[in-house]
Amino acid sequence: MALIEFKNVEKYFGDFHALKNINLEIEEGQVVVLLGPSGSGKSTLIRTINALEKINSGELIVDGRHVDNASNQDLAELRKHVGMVFQHFNLYPHKTVLENVTLAPTKVLKISKAEAEKTAEEYLQYVNMWDKKDSYPGMLSGGQKQRVAIARGLAMHPKLLLFDEPTSALDPETIGDVLEVMQNLAKQGMNMLVVTHEMGFARNVADRIIFMADGEILQDTTDVAGFFDN
Ligand code: ADP
Ligand code: ADP
């Protein structure tokens, strides 16, 4: 069974046709990179997967759950298993790094504070941010914030992590650290769907490239080297 399945999916914003007849199956164990010009629908496509955007027609099945016509309870369940890393981090500014990472596990998964802090330590070590656990997001660089956001996503033990232009808002000198964390996750077999303009990352890390333009998938290939050589 595919981890993500789009069947004839259409998405409109008013009259604007943002996703046009999307058909897509993503298996477990694939790192998929979505490329395409600005405004082509990449962000909209990944936001439909955890229902941050609702599709207008077609079928969307994620980890065996129908996202189209899902109840609010189903969506809450789905979002436990689908993590998302945003361009602008979406950290809580008035909570420390550690609190940002423990919040969802304690509130949503009802894990004890002690247990959540143990998990948070593991993932903050992984992204090399444990020494900043008591800092507030405003004190961190963009790259540091993004690594905290990744740790927060991982702390939910997601089956799938979505990345929406995770490095586009960062200073150039902090991008490398974030891409390195993402590359390590990929090596460890995390299921990832990544919207990015980082061609080096796409070329070196992707198992599959999906190229969009004007709301359509124009290319979908596992021949990543071939994609970049042509
Ligand atoms: P990309 O990620 O490829 O840059 P997006 O998915 O963000 O593209 O956007 C695709 C198109 O849909 C753009 O023209 C954008 O302005 C439009 N769009 C995105 N979200 C909305 C929205 N909430 N309301 C209206 N138009 C939107
Ligand atoms: P982020 O990187 O945090 O997702 P964006 O600027 O891409 O920020 O989008 C912020 C919000 O604005 C999203 O919810 C998106 O759907 C919405 N949006 C994007 N383009 C448009 C548009 N043309 N009209 C209305 N809303 C839009």
From TrEMBL:
GO terms for molecular function: ABC-type amino acid transporter activity; ATP binding; ATP hydrolysis activity. Pfam families: ABC_tran. Gene3D superfamilies: P-loop containing nucleotide triphosphate hydrolases. Keywords: ATP-binding, Nucleotide-binding, Transport. The keyword Ribonucleoprotein does not apply. Belongs to the ABC transporter superfamily. This is ABC transporter.
